[in-house]
Task: structure prediction
Amino acid sequence: MNFMAQYHPVKILYVEDDEAVRNVASEALREAGFEVIEAKTADEAIMLLTEPDDVGALFTDVRLPGSMDGIDLAHETRKAYPNMPVLVASGYSARITERLSDLSPPALFMTKPYSLSKLVSKMRGLTRGL
Result:
């Protein structure tokens, strides 16, 4: 039996406006076996989520340009996909966990700066079983 033929990497929608951060984190996730699609704004991410693209998880920064921040994006994503795993990252932690507290299942929060190994570990934990 060919197990690799049955394996489909989890597709992560990664939303980060800082190109350097996005490139490094995306590469680490790809090296860990994830498929990554990228967006610079929450508005762009919403458009990507409406396409039938089998996104398995959302990873977003909080501070984003455009009409929504990453927490708004997490809420909008959960309205459309109630069980989608969500990981939120920010260098600013004030009120973030409070704004995420009503999401069920809970979203995970990770403070910036984070190590790439921590990112991969959290994403593996979030997507286990997908």
User: Anything to note?
Assistant: The two ends are 21 Å apart (CA to CA). The mean pLDDT is 90. The beta strands are 11-15, 35-39, 57-61, 86-90, 108-111.
